[in-house]
Fold this protein.
Amino acid sequence: MASDSGPHVVLDPEHAHDPSRQGTGRSQARPSKMDGRDAREKAEAKYQKMNGPGKSDRLVVSEKLPNKADEAAEAVERSGLTKGNANQHNTRRTLSRESVPSALERIRIAAKGDKGRRFTSLFHHINSVERLRDAFLALRRDASAGIDGETWDHYAENLDDNLKGLSERLKRGAYRAKPVRRVFIPKADGKRRPLGIPSLEDKVVQKATAEVLNAIYEQDFAGFSYGFRPGRNQHQALKALGLAMERNVNWVIDADIRGFFDAIDHEWLIKFVNHRIGDPRVVRLIQKWLAAGVMENGEWKSSEKGTPQGGIVSPILANLYLHYAFDLWTQWWRKQPGRKNVIVVRYADDFITGFQQKLDAYVFLRHLKERLAKFGLELHPEKTRLLEFGRFAISSRLERKKKKPETFNFLGFTHICKMTKSGKCVIERQTERKRATAKLRAIRQELRKRMHQPIPEVGKWLGTVLRGHYQYYGISFNSRAINSFRYQVTLAWHSILRRRSQKGYVTWERMKRLQSKWLPPARLAHPDFLERNTADPR
């Protein structure tokens, strides 16, 4: 691991890359001095002198870094700073009880300590057999195979030799990325979403690479970015949005980038990568995946732009692209003189921006279109709109003799602005009707396939589906929607049971007993969703 200093923040990354400023690949920090007053410290110093650099600096005190984007809460725990060999894993010293930070932890510390550093020696963290083994074990065993048909179980039969061979090919530069297998899955709006399934060895190398990239870029990404990041999820984004809306927000832009994953410009993406990654072997690895193409119906197609959804490295690359194309620019824009309150919450290519003044919203939307066009992106015209929404929207619209505020959809929930009896404005979230309808349609189709399976088997499957539904949609103010979903599932199951046989009529009384036995009652998995101390525990 190595690095050198560079600019802290840039709006256009072409100004960030400076090839003349390359690091040496070794840490330049000096070891702390020993005072020799303690026998144990003297022994430790002697041991370290014999075994090379490895002394630890003092621990950095933990502190909270507020998310100025929406102040929805982001607390980053600082870790102990340790200098030493970059490829060393977590171990315990012979004469010390302190654990030596892993190589990835050292990368995180270096990236966090200097946001302008370029890492020039990272490839050995990816091609080591240990890293590849950890990446392989982290993969799903039942995941779909790529174009080569290689499965997790078959690859594991000769795992040691397979990983050693993969590691050697990476070191020699003989590794070749295979095209991804193109499949389509249905979307809630009836359309189909294309997915790219990489081969197994590509998944392993991508997983190892994504871990290294995450160690660096997690220190850079904005606090209002929640999509596909370690330790962050949709519920945290929803909580952050709810808390941000408590501020003086009167206007909301609900935006979506059209075909984002298919529109990523490869040239810009590599420029963004070069801003922090100075190891050309890692950059070439990313370029191989981008140029591998897709295999659809036995026909190979080139991929001049975009990164396939389904690839393990695609989420980090997509977040990296929007970090420079959208996040940094948005942070700069709202800090300009004359801007009133502006809040942002982004999950992948879906984002919500809130404004105190309508004029700011109009100006931001116009400038945003120009900004995204520079990087080959555009807002979806049907999914992007400006609406009056927030604390004062209800009273303002009543004064103008208009209907109640409009609603918007975000992360599967319809957000509704309502007024309580005490006169306080609250945001209710209900299951998006289109999502619920699509899910029920899929359940009915699966029930037809399972029509003649034993009732206990089908009941266990439906129970699993409902528990997953409650786990995501079971939040405050949404109990009616999840109760309705359970009832609709019961009706669908009853309809299938009645069709199994002409003589096997199932009465509603018996169906209620089956429902009670196999279908768990609706419950709120997140009843404290509106409490402040539950917002983004990071």
